[in-house]
Specification:
187 residues; alpha+beta; Gyrase A, domain 2; 4-stranded antiparallel sheet; two-stranded antiparallel ribbon; 58% helix
């Protein structure tokens, strides 16, 4: 296979890996009934005029299976952290005692579990669409290279390799979704 075709296949592979990595990161944020500090990943508070991650202005710890605590390093950060968690609409209500913030995660109802599973499937669909878009772009680029003189056999081999990669990564998405759904629906 020519260098340009191989490069295109490798770029598609790297992009698809990133799509899977993004899916994994998003699935970790989705609450499955257990306390997980990563549900606050990406939440930022105003720290002296700078948007700063909650994890960088205090300690987030798991007190028990259904309780998280956030202990800010500065007491004046209690209110901003509390407001940020409420604004994020995570389905939890922080309780501030003047020293730490406690977040009690209520047990999930069957209805809420089904809503969360729908959210998981929506994330999976975003990943599948991203992977298919990567495939489409790679195949378009391969066709351009073919018009520039790359042999038809090499181009079709590269297209087949990209399609096989696509099928593999979409199967990985399905595996992640099934595992997360099982985790959410188990009581």
């Amino acid at each position: 296979m020519s260098e340009e075709l191989q490069l295109q296949v490798e770029l598609a592979n790297d992009s698809m890996k990133k799509a899977i990595g993004h899916l994994e990161a998003e699935l970790v944020k989705i609450r499955a009934g257990r306390a997980n500090p990563q549900m606050f990943d990406g939440l930022t508070v105003d720290y002296y005029g700078t948007p700063t991650l909650i994890s960088q202005v205090g300690n987030i710890t798991v007190a028990d299976a259904r309780t998280l605590t956030i202990q800010p390093w500065e007491k004046n950060m209690l209110q901003p952290i509390e407001r940020c968690i409420i604004a994020a609409n995570l389905g939890v209500t922080p309780q501030n005692d003047g020293i730490i913030i406690r977040i009690f995660l209520p047990p999930l109802t069957e209805e809420r579990r089904k809503e969360i599973v729908k959210k998981v499937h929506a994330e999976g669909e975003h990943s599948r669409v991203a992977i298919r878009n990567i495939r489409r772009e790679a195949i378009e680029h391969i066709k351009k290279l073919q018009k520039q003189g790359v042999s038809e056999d090499l181009a079709s081999d590269a297209e087949k390799e990209v399609q096989d990669m696509t099928n593999n990564y979409i199967a990985q998405v399905e595996k992640h979704l099934v595992a997360k759904e099982k985790e959410i629906m188990s009581i």
